[in-house]
């Protein structure tokens, strides 16, 4: 796991940028900007009252957008470009209808309103890139016009390039732009198809994300779940969202997690609703949800989501067999010492079922042992493979076939004593028949 800083660097930089003082007269005197553009920017930047600012925008109309985009394109100094981009973002935040002046100006140039901002995504200055991405998303979402397929692909490729550990300080800014874009239904499926959901899951798998980044990533899942719930279920996004719900102390994060669960249950194909609930049960979601039911919530929507999710989980849990519960837990990747693992009757009755579907559950257990770092997961996984070998006649052959024995043997050198112990016991169970056969062969000879 990688540690990520909790700060929202973009917002910090925006605060610092807003207090800058730009000498527009010097730009005009050096003839770097036109008289018309100077008149607007000087009047608008000098005014501090928001109502008066809006009146200036209304008076200049598309010429205000013309001035701003001209200045951004003509001025090379990063600090001034940062200031102008922050100004544009504030204009769009102040009144969503302000996007019209940018679209009207773009028509006169025969281009799209977001074109001058998308071109800034390749700038080396991260603040400029992220502010431009935020503005582009607003221009392509708030109004009626949308990115073309090619424009969407280019923008989403940039987003993909930002959702990486080396860009940790700017992840909150990137997911904020993505949230804006996801408000428009037409972008949700392309975002899934570009593999961005997988990257968001990786972000949640890192440590110390900060609650705001957690909220924004889960909010992205929530927005996607209105249109692509089946795809989210296939990717098992319930697992990292359950982890967030278990860890968070922030009500707004808990609320968005519950909203995701409800959307998945209600928006997936009806035949998958039970599987989703089963997966949530496997992730031990009920424990975290039970904590919420005991709190005094003042959010009516959250209370409604909570009631619906609790009711659905209870309904499924009552009819869930011990084997289904076991499979759900294994598929979630969150193994713990629940009673089913140490129940001899369970293993006697169900060991043979683990070879179904080309050893799917056994392969999943092996994958957990190869990739997970949680010591309880590793201990339980070793134990389960040992129990399978003990209770299934061909268990040792199967374990060899899927290369699980070598994985368990490597864990005998793990730094954690409990993992080493369970790996050792499992290996002994895997080897005992070999020793018995060898003993019989020696006796015959």
Automatic annotation (TrEMBL):
<comment type="function">
    <text>Subunit of the V1 complex of vacuolar(H+)-ATPase (V-ATPase), a multisubunit enzyme composed of a peripheral complex (V1) that hydrolyzes ATP and a membrane integral complex (V0) that translocates protons. V-ATPase is responsible for acidifying and maintaining the pH of intracellular compartments.</text>
</comment>
<comment type="subunit">
    <text>V-ATPase is a heteromultimeric enzyme made up of two complexes: the ATP-hydrolytic V1 complex and the proton translocation V0 complex.</text>
</comment>
<dbReference type="GO" id="GO:0046961">
    <property type="term" value="F:proton-transporting ATPase activity, rotational mechanism"/>
</dbReference>
<dbReference type="GO" id="GO:0005765">
    <property type="term" value="C:lysosomal membrane"/>
</dbReference>
<dbReference type="InterPro" id="IPR016024">
    <property type="entry name" value="ARM-type_fold"/>
</dbReference>
<dbReference type="InterPro" id="IPR004908">
    <property type="entry name" value="ATPase_V1-cplx_hsu"/>
</dbReference>
<keyword id="KW-0406">Ion transport</keyword>
<protein>
    <recommendedName>
        <fullName>V-type proton ATPase subunit H</fullName>
    </recommendedName>
</protein>
<feature type="domain" description="ATPase V1 complex subunit H C-terminal">
    <location>
        <begin position="319"/>
        <end position="435"/>
    </location>
</feature>
<dbReference type="Pfam" id="PF03224">
    <property type="entry name" value="V-ATPase_H_N"/>
</dbReference>
<dbReference type="InterPro" id="IPR038497">
    <property type="entry name" value="ATPase_V1-cplx_hsu_C_sf"/>
</dbReference>
<comment type="similarity">
    <text>Belongs to the V-ATPase H subunit family.</text>
</comment>
<dbReference type="GO" id="GO:0000221">
    <property type="term" value="C:vacuolar proton-transporting V-type ATPase, V1 domain"/>
</dbReference>
<keyword id="KW-0813">Transport</keyword>
<keyword id="KW-0375">Hydrogen ion transport</keyword>
<dbReference type="InterPro" id="IPR011989">
    <property type="entry name" value="ARM-like"/>
</dbReference>
<dbReference type="InterPro" id="IPR011987">
    <property type="entry name" value="ATPase_V1-cplx_hsu_C"/>
</dbReference>
<dbReference type="Pfam" id="PF11698">
    <property type="entry name" value="V-ATPase_H_C"/>
</dbReference>
